[in-house]
Inverse folding.
């Protein structure tokens, strides 16, 4: 895909952070973008902020844990722009906690958003892409989808799963022109840690990986990598990208 005008990108988790920056990156190139998340006012603000860019931006309030809402998001995009060229499954939560603290509701939320949300996205868009024999599904995994950290058993489990789901899907549809990518960021300066309620986990995070000394990535750094993966010529399939801050071990 060289020219993005007339192409459509759907992004979940676009009300902040990586999703928001990726929406701007594609709209700048002329792609039409549908941004989705639960906080509708943030999506409206984003649409207003990007209104001067060449691509059109629309939004649809979507909770990715609700399968029907994810189906509706894809249908809304097809009805509005005619097709889906890229689905970026990016919505995610990271309420890290130690297992002994038994934050069962947070375990369930992570499984629902980080795994089931990805599956619902794949399920909703795949028939459409296979029918057109064109499209790209890209999912945000993490360094935590490659390495397990203390207080991250469940989060890492969900991010391993997200990565493996992309890999499995890629193998299943290898003969088609539909492509799959998982993107694994290291520390990015976003709102992601706001959901952590376990004080011990917060403390460990601050001390353990030297967050205070590190220059984190910005969301735009990941948006650039997503754009790279989706902009390759048709015969190239970028299956996996890892991007971490220079100082992150
Ligand atoms: P943010 O907290 O800024 O973004 C998370 C996004 O997910 C928000 O837009 C939020 O929107 C959305 N979201 C959460 N729950 C739901 C839901 N049920 N339905 C729909 N949307 C939902 O953090 P990031 O930008 O950092 O996170 C984006 C992705 O990147 C996540 O998958 C995260 O795990 C991953 N990641 C982040 C890293 C980092 O260091 N920041 C490192 C590696 C991976 P809303 O609340 O409005 O629904």
């Amino acid at each position: 895909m060289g020219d993005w005008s007339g192409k459509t990108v759907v992004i979940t988790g676009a009300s902040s952070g990586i999703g928001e920056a990726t929406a701007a990156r594609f709209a700048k190139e002329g792609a039409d973008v549908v941004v989705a998340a639960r906080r509708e006012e943030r999506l409206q603000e984003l649409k207003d902020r990007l209104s001067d860019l060449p691509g059109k931006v629309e939004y649809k309030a979507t909770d990715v844990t609700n399968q029907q809402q994810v189906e509706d998001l894809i249908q809304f995009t097809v009805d509005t722009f005619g097709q889906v060229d890229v689905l970026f499954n990016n919505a995610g939560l990271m309420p890290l906690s130690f297992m002994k603290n038994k934050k069962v509701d947070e375990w369930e939320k992570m499984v629902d958003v980080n795994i089931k949300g990805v599956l619902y996205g794949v399920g909703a868009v795949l028939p459409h892409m296979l029918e057109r024999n064109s499209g790209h599904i890209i999912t945000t995994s993490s360094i935590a989808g490659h390495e397990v950290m203390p207080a991250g058993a469940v989060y890492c489990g969900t991010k391993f799963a997200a990565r493996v789901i992309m890999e499995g899907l890629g193998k299943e549809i290898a003969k088609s022109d539909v492509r799959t990518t998982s993107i694994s960021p290291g520390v990015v300066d976003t709102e992601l840690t706001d959901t952590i309620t376990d004080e011990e986990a917060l403390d460990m995070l601050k001390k353990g990986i030297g967050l205070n000394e590190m220059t984190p990535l910005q969301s735009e750094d990941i948006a650039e990598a997503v754009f790279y993966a989706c902009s390759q010529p048709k015969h190239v399939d970028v299956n996996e990208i890892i991007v971490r801050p220079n100082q992150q071990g």
